[in-house]
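Final report, results section. Input specification for complex C-07:
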Amino acid sequence: MQNQELIDHLFRTEFRKITAVICKLLGIEHIEIAEDIAGETFLSALETWPYKGLPPNPTAWLYAVAKNKAKNHITRKFLFADKVIPEITSSLFKEYEFDVEIDLSDKNIADSQLQMLFAICNPVISIEAQTGLALRILCGFGIDEIANAFLSNKETINKRLFRAKEKLRIEKVKIEFLPQAEISIRIDAVLTTLYLLFNEGYYSESQDAILRKDLCLEAMRLIYMLVENEQTNLPVVNSLLALMCFHASRFEARKNDKGEMILYDDQDETLWDQALIAKGAYYLNQASEGDAIPKYHIEASIAWWHTHKADTPEKWENILHLFNRLLAIDYSPIAALNRTYAVSKVRGNEAAIVEAEKLNLTDNHFYFTLLGELYKEIDIPTAKQHFTQAFLLARTSADKLLIQQKINKLIKLLQLRKKRVLYLQLRADL
Amino acid sequence: MSNITQQLNFNKMDEFILFFRHEDGKKIASPEQMQIWMKQTMDWIGGIAAQNKFVGGNGLSFDDARIVKHNSVVTNGPFGEIKETIGGYIIVKAESADEAAEFAKGCPVLQGDGNSVEVRKLANGDGVH
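Structure output:
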């Protein structure tokens, strides 16, 4: 590996660890100092390694430099405090200085990151700020990468993160292990953030395919961290990890070389990652050993059925039943549309059209795409009308392209039919 | 705009409770039959929930029930002198009793001869009750 590549790689894996440990040591109010110390550590590597050669153990080198920088920072603070407010605090700081131990052991890194996760995924800041901060602090993403992932710009993201850190400071959010009872309450917010992070990658419009995948993998890594810790290894956490494994298993199959979406029915299932599917099944099993909050569990079960490509009555009966249960506890337009699709598979298109027309999601392009699909084999002009409506409502070029392809197919069918009618008329005239 | 109007209409909606009335609660169904009803009920609820109009609901067990009467007289079960009993309920959001009644029409309980669904508006905070 070249120096630059190695440093990039280490940045990805080590920046977040150093930041978490130092931030845990100094407190959330010094989160920026922790970031700065971690950043300066890598700057030192960039300045030193090309000239003096790679150290034998680059990670250990980084940790040593980070420790020194952190110690210097604390000493500087001590000197300042000593001169300005000597009487009151000097003894306290002196003690602090001699005792300070910057512990970059695996255990403390894991603990610090986990505690940071709970500190950041805190409802006192907005969900966008939570995901942004998680990407920055827990995943070591650069500001421009975050901006790219959220289809935003650097300035907006910088402002958002700055405000979020201010808020965490004002609210005096602690970086600490929570008691078990509190974990069960706070875990929801953490999982919501990680679920969003994953979806951001899975459904992102960003052109950067590697970045999109990275978002998903990072979300999975953070959930894996929760599974690894005895206190946070809850059924609901396993459910969400299972769900992500099943979705991620289709990564390679759902886009073509040009980055265009390939719909589920058209995917080459030999590209599905069987190892990830097996992992997902494992976590889904783990999740069943307890009274999990059903939402993620139901979603993961639906995703499991989707890892079987063949259309069996059993598959769709089960999926329909699961969507019924999901909707009864947690309505979302997308679940309503998916349920209706399942109805078409179980009871036929006509029954599904009746259900679809009750949904009243007339500002949703998926709604009209679904209606188009359901009418396709019954009434082509009506189907075309619905697809056209979907095209008008679709916001991204990827969606518009997919819908246009569907319209083109129908136009071809209509032309063929016209020709046939003409031909029959001609024969009748003869 | 249409979205906002929809949202406003949504907030204006009332809640209705749908009681499942069984003509004869003592009739015993086979486990297979129960299973089919369960599925049909879930599907019926799913259709309402897909419109974001399902609030909640539950089945009521026919076992281990009591009737408490005036003067604290307690009898076992709802099946004393009257055979009719309530087997469950759901609560839905609807713009009118008629819309709620439309939902009720799909209730699998109605497959049973003599069974009925009673639709009643919940009186939460309408300023009258």
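The interface with chain B takes residues 320-321, 323-325, 327-328, 331, 335-336, 339-340, 355, 358-360, 362-363 of chain A (CB under 8 Å). Chain A has a mean pLDDT of 87. This concludes the modelling results for the funded period.
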